[in-house]
Every structure is written in C-alpha cells, then in structure tokens.
C-alpha cells in the first residue's frame, strides 16, 4: 500500500497566493486509511461504523484546515505550529460528537486540552522509536 493512493489531495495545485493549497504530505491514502480504519475501530468497540467514519472525516477536515492555514503562513509541510496542529483536528470531530454523545462545551474544552497534551507526548515517543520523522 506504500505507493497506492499516495498522491496529494490538492493534486499539487497552488492557491491564489501561489503557495500549495495543502502540500504534498496530505495524501488520498492518508485520508482513506484514516476514515476506513477509524470506522472499523468504532465498529470493533461497539459503536456504529458510520460514527467512526464521521469522526475520522471531521478530524481529517480539521487537519486539512490546519495545513491550509500553515501554507498561507508560509510554513513548510510537517512544520510545527503548536495549537494550530491540534485544535482543529480535535475540535471539528468534537462538534459532531456533541450531538451524538451529548457532550457539553466544558467537556469539549477538556478533551481538546487532553488531545493536545497526549498528541505532543505521543509524537515524541513515536519519534524516539522511529515511527515519526520529527519529534512533533
């Protein structure tokens, strides 16, 4: 699967500012794997697969939003942008989850904070064991 669907979601196109829309690291493969595997994981833990699909879709939408903003700020793909890298990726699916799981804003805020802390910690661990290319 390494090369399957490994082409960029933005097809290498530039935005009106002549910068990439998303960048080469946002691929069709990443989007597909995320949505399919999260749907499967949701099903395996007793949730509707559709709920998992939606959660992954909105998380990826948040990630793509972050990438779009980072390109506008002239940050290279995979560069670190604390907060911007985590908040949309957590917030977008949580907005969906508010209705599905009856979450309140305080819970959403707490989950976002936990997501930021856990993501930064796990990124360092995944870097140390050789899974990630960067420690963030």
Q: Could you characterize the architecture of this molecule?
A:
With 136 residues, this protein is mainly alpha-helical. It contains 4 helices and no strands. It has helices at 28-44, 49-72, 87-100, 105-128. Helix 1 runs antiparallel to helix 2 and helix 2 (49-72) runs antiparallel to helix 3 (87-100). The relative contact order is 0.10.
As an assembly, this protein is: single chain
Distance between the termini: 25 Å
Give the class from helix and strand content and strand pairing: mainly alpha
Elements, N to C (H/E): HHHH
Gyration radius from CA atoms, angstroms: 16 Å
Strand fraction band?
Answer: under 5%
Query: Sheet bearing the most strands, described?
Result: none
The overall number of domains is 1
- Poorly predicted segments: none
Task: Give descriptors for this structure.
globular; 136 residues; mainly alpha
Would you spell out the secondary-structure blueprint of this structure?
Layout: H1 28-44, H2 49-72, H3 87-100, H4 105-128
